[in-house]
Amino acid sequence: MSLVAGVPPAPTLRLPDMDGNPVDLAAYRGKMVLVNFWATWCPPCRKEFPSLGRVRKLFRPADFEVMAVNVGEDPETAFSFAGSPDFPVLFDRNSQAMEHWQVKGLPTTLVVDRQGRLALRAVGGREFDNPAIVAQLKSLLK
Q1: In which domain, by residue range, is 129 found?
Q2: In this structure, is the dihedral angle defined by the CA atoms of residues 80, 24, 66 and 2, taken in order, positive or negative?
Q3: Which residues lie below 8 Å from residue 35, measured CB to CB, with a gap of 6+?
Q4: Nearest Cα to 44, choosing from 140, 124, 139?
Q5: Cβ-count burial of 74 within 10 angstroms (0-12 exposed, 13-18 middle, 19+ buried)?
Q6: Into how many domains does the chain fold?
Q7: Residue 14: inside a domain
Q8: In whole angstroms, what separates CA 55 from the centre of its chain?
Q9: Does 2 reside within a domain?
Q10: What is the pLDDT of residues 26-83, one digit of tens each?
Q11: Distance between CA 45 and CA 138 in Å, rounded?
Q12: From CA 142, how far away is CA 125, in angstroms rounded?
């Protein structure tokens, strides 16, 4: 994952979850949040998805959260692939959040620091519980 130049404020992110309830990134201020943009038709997205749950378990819930933003699909399609993960899965049905976050391709992951700023970006598939990535996340939490 690479550093985001200038550490700008994270764009607004308020999307419905699998039950249609709105989830707002602003409510997570004070936590580091890994925001992953993905789709079920994207092979690298499918490959990295299980690692999102694994990396989430490596950190205290008070410090760290994962949000998986499904782009362009309906909840049934995402649920048939993802099941019921232990982190929020949000739905960007019209790709407006993807555009607002300047995501050019899937998967793209951004890490929002405790102050609500974009700190890290990764384009392409990753194993988020890889020791090098975990070390990056831990240093960002300090």
Answers
A1: 38-113+120-142
A2: positive
A3: 10, 13, 25, 67, 69, 101, 109, 110, 111, 112
A4: 124
A5: exposed
A6: 1
A7: no
A8: 11
A9: no
A10: 999 999 999 999 999 999 999 999 999 999 999 999 999 999 999 999 999 999 999 9
A11: 23
A12: 26
- Judge whether 12 lies within some domain: no
Q: Crossing angle for the helix pair 75-82 and 43-56, nearest 10 degrees? A: 70
Reading the block at residue 128, the tokens are 């988020």
Token pair for 124:
């392409």
Residues 94-109: tens digit of each pLDDT: 999 999 999 999 999 9
Question: What CATH number corresponds to the domain at position 108?
Answer: 3.40.30.10
Residue 109 lies in a domain: yes
Measured in Å, how far apart are the chain's first and last C-alpha atoms? 17
Q: Cα 70 vs. chain centroid, distance in angstroms? A: 10
Encoded tokens for 14:
């308020």
